[in-house]
Amino acid sequence: MSQDTMKSMTEGKPFSLIMGFAFPVFLGLLFQQLYNMVDTMIVGKFLGEDALGAVGATGSLNFLIIGFCTGVCNGFAIPVAHQFGAKKDSNLRRVVANSVWLCAIFSIIMTILTVVFCRNILTFMNTPEELINDSYKYIVVIFAGIPAVYLYNMVAGIIRSLGDSRTPVYFLALASVINVVLDITFICAFHTGVEGAAYATVISQAVSGIACVIYMKKKFPILKISKEEWAFHPKWAKTLCSMGIPMGLQYSITAVGSVILQTSVNSLGKVYVTSVTAAQKLAILFWCPYDALGTTMATYAGQNVGAGKLDRIGPGMKTSIKIAAVYTVFVFAVLNLFSSKLLLLFVNADSTTIIKNAGTYILFGSSAYILLALVNIVRFTIQGLGFSQFAILAGLLEMIARTIAAFGLVPFLGYTGVCLADPLAWIFADCFLIPAFFRCMRVCRKRMEQA
Prior knowledge:
Helix content is 85%, strand content 0%. The protein is an all-alpha fold.
């Protein structure tokens, strides 16, 4: 396996290309969620509901920071896809080299800032007094591991942009096994508490990132970067930042809304905090196919824009939406029939109030999953076209919707207002993204006509 591991998405039927690319991405996301899921299961089962609530109380903050890291790396991968689609190998290597420089800088700055101000942020979020110490112990370790997050997501993004969506999955599978072993070792054998789950996550992600680097170095001759190509180039750094920062901010701005909403949930008490934690852990597991289709469309659109084949993008996006629609019907049935049983993965059977509350959250959310599918597919397609700035606006609208839920719905509807927050956010984002996609396509066509 070398150059053969790369795959162009500029030729062939969209359905087979999208399914062939998306399925390994889905497996990778599934393994990635397994990190968090196993943490939650072991924490909930062995350390109790308070510990589970403490981890859950950091969820939106975790998404705020780690989501930015992930978004930046996904954005950096888009110029890689553009250069690969255009078959400009030297430019491709320069983009990769500058991605390394920027990720190193970003990771150092973010690690220092988040570790220093971690407890202050938790206090600002009204984290319940009985949970805040364990919340801090957990999330500060996660933030200390930010370089590992950048490492894996940067390298995995580059590999996927070259058409290889399988390899990152293999290393995530290995990391997931390591994560399970370390979770049990730290929590059950060494009695480290919630921070043991965080140590397991960070170490596992570092292993998967290092493994991806070794693989990429050995198996992709096209990425053998010369000394000249390793130089920091302001031109490429600007291009990368114009894609990466908006995508990172999109994740973070969306997460700001989640932080605001989490603050409202925290004010309802630890029972509701734990209920939302369990429900979100289960729901996110079922969101993986939507994320996989979105990631696929970013690469699909990016390669086809680079190759000048805009006529392939519309059919590709329609294919992804049809796949998502079929899956949505299936997942709605599964969650509403078996959610109470699936929630036992995270809480004990005698936690009837928590199971009931979590089931209500899942019912509201799963009724609107097709809206979530559109958010992911359309947004990532737009980003693949090279319009990452629109991601910020979509994230801003999601933040506004969750803020409305936090201050406008929760005070009057209580927990029901919390359950309505996600569907409201998806409606706001879709109302912007769908018209924005057609606008971006028109701009791309004009650029190609003028070129």
